[in-house]
Sequence to fold (301 residues):
Amino acid sequence: MSKVRKAISLDEIEEDVKTSWKSIQNQYVQKDVLVNIYQFNDIGSGIGFDFQLSHSNVHNFDVEFRLIKNDLIENYASLRSYLLANVGKQILYCIGNYQIDEASDSSFCLKHRYGRKQLEVLHEDEDSLIESAQAMIVAGKIPEFDQTADINYGLLTPFTSDQVTLIKIIYGNLIKKFDFALEQISFGGFSYSFKNKKYQMATLKFRRKDGDQTFEINVFGNQVNKYAHKFAERGMGEEQAIYFIIKTMLRTKINAFNPVAVVAASADENAPVSLPQLERDKEYLTDTVSKLPKFYHELFK
Fold:
């Protein structure tokens, strides 16, 4: 990183963190959770976060932590991803420690003056913020999730069995219609849902037969729910929502693919030999996605 960037002031860091965080909070955190962002300059320096939970007026637990200035500077080029991953981790750390105290300290409720009502809303707040934190960590690692995640549609909601079936059918029809190489769909997840054999992510692969370049796209339960809601308002079903997601993401991946840049970045000294093939792959797939109809049912005309 350049010396100019390392000389950035704490005031500038705070401003940029607040700007990035505002967008993150709108996507991942309940609206009634208040977050105060502040500078600290006591033991070290950096940016602090203080989360006042939905029912802070009933219990006395807030989530508070600090991010060090040097770490923020080192990750300035990808500040949003850094905040997603590290704010998420710090939230889980703070809540986890408090839950350990509750489980291990027999005088926990007496110390904090918690009765049944206070514990119920405390656990409700903890569970809600844990889901937000887990989703943020996922988004910090998987940009496609961050692009469409929306707390209004269940951040880590798994696919329904019908949605899993539709994903398989739509993928199979696209493969057959455009003569792609058939690949296995990978289903996975990130939380307790996956342990219960409920999937939150589907990875689909597209490659022309005899082609070298494979394009992977990820579809998420939260994403399907969001677009299914939007298309339902227009009288269309989940199949149109899933088709729209696949089509849009595939087009984005193919348009962003630069064969020359891929070859130039390769450590393989024989990489230039593959350039003509990669260019043919891009041309074929660009032409293919340009022919994808707007509506799913039109695939069968």
